[in-house]
Amino acid sequence: MQRAKVLAMEKMKRIFQSTLSHRNYHPRHRCLSQLAHSHTQSVLKENDDFLIPKMPHFDYTPPPYTGPSAAEISKKRKEYLSPSIVHLFKNPLNLVDGKMQYLYDENGRRYLDAFGGIATVCCGHCHPDVVAAIINQTKRLQHSTVLYLNHAIADFAEALASKLPGDLKVVFFTNSGTEANELALMMARLYTGCHDIISLRNGYHGNAAGTMGATAQSNYKFNTVQIGVHHALNPDQYRGVFGSDGVKYAGDVQEIIDYGTCGRVAGFIAEAIQGVGGILELAPGYLPAVYSSIRKAGGLCIADEVQSGFARTGSHFWGFEAHDVVPDIVTMAKGIGNGIPIGAVVTTPEIAKVLTYRTYFNTFGGNPVCAAGGLAVLRVIEKEKLQQNAFVVGSYLKERLTSLKDKHEIIGDVRGRGLMLGIELVTDRQLKTPAKAEILHLMDQMKELGVLVGKGGFHGNVFRITPPLCFTKEDADFLVDVMDYTLSKM
């Protein structure tokens, strides 16, 4: 027994030393290594029964950071930025470098990014092809206006339209997902001549006037005028009253049409997988039934692909494709630019005509730099087979996470597709009591071990795992091992 402990301690020393080497400390930070080494002894004593997981090797060393510290930035942020901005951790993280699926803090320490800037970084941080496209375009022309011709916006629109089914081939560029959804809702109302929109409870579509109305979580709604939106029963396969029976949930939409409107509606908007809502995939059979009801009532069907689009689900390029439906309007952002501020609305030529009735204009939408970057993203997804990787690695990761459910009672549900996964934590599986405090503690502990994840869900008790699509099986193993380790230490 004593020999086993000694061997375990020696192994942990090697792991810790390896971890230090992966932190890529430059001379300025040697003292940190010494402090960490002195702390190792107490760590070893506390972890005789658990070996700290080892981060996969990654051949990159960030340049030395000489900028302001986390404390200095926090002070400026508190004084000059909106007080609505929050932190994920007790001790805010100052990230200064990124490379593919990894991020680096001010001390050169490496972290596995399993959140992807909220499902935004799809190709990987600072992907060389995307960076090169942005730089090359910036050197030639950073901005003009769509009143002049430029090939970048036309090339990107053509490539984007080729990824969508049917007659979805007219593109309007915006700066964000909120803008895209605002435009889509307005177009639906203009095209149909109706005002009523139906969206889903627990859904999130943005924080402007129209999109806040369509959003159905009190946490994200201010007390402002929000009219003409009806929120239907959410086809939640974990907490919902009908389980996984999508057709039964769809009946509520028909009832809203029958009893809450004049019998005609402008449209229906939904995410195929609710991101902010806690990675909730809509119940099978739901969207086909709802699309049928909406179209019979003269409305348009809007697919919000801001988070689930651009190959993230692995099985398909767009989330709605998994439900065997074709929307009338598709909105997108986040992954479209790998971090560039760009969004888009894609619809049919017939519906697109409604914006010619008045003047519609977006100063920055589709500017040359963003368009060039967006086109590079599409090419990288194809060239590096990132959709296939999201499917293979995502399926493997989901399987490994599901195995943790048998081991840890706090895991109530594991769900999602590809590299858009959610883990709902509960203190009581029978009652499904949200583990609100526990998830905050676990996120902090995982950060200390080098893994960054997000959280969401109405109760804030769901781990959101949406990493860059270049995530590997080794990364998946490390993430699961770190999660297992932190859960075992609770």
Give a description of the structure:
By secondary structure, the protein is of the alpha/beta class. The protein has 15 helices and 18 strands. It has a seven-stranded mixed β-sheet with strand order 4-12-11-10-7-5-6, with helices on both faces. A hairpin with a 4-residue loop joins strand 2 (102-105) and strand 3. The longest helix has 22 residues, at 386-407. The chain is globular and about 60 Å long.
Compose a concise summary of this entry:
The chain is an alpha/beta fold.
Key features of this structure:
single chain; 18 strands; 15 helices; 5-stranded antiparallel β-sheet; disordered N terminus; alpha/beta; 490 residues; 7-stranded mixed β-sheet
**Cross-sheet strand order for the largest sheet:** 4-12-11-10-7-5-6
Low-confidence stretches: 1-46
Rounded to an integer, what's the Rg over CA atoms?
24 Å
Separation, N- and C-terminal Cα atoms: 25 Å
Topology:
Layout: H1 2-22, H2 30-46, H3 70-80, E1 95-99, E2 102-105, E3 110-113, H4 116-119, H5 128-140, H6 151-161, E4 170-174, H7 177-192, E5 197-200, H8 209-214, E6 229-232, H9 246-260, E7 267-271, E8 273-274, E9 280-281, H10 286-296, E10 300-304, E11 329-332, E12 343-347, H11 349-352, H12 368-383, H13 386-407, E13 411-417, E14 420-428, E15 433-434, H14 436-448, E16 451-452, E17 454-456, E18 462-465, H15 473-488
Parallel strand pairs: 3-16, 5-6, 5-7, 7-10, 10-11
Antiparallel strand pairs: 1-2, 2-3, 4-12, 8-9, 11-12, 13-14, 14-15, 14-18, 17-18
Helix pairs in contact: 1-2, 5-12, 6-12, 9-10, 13-15
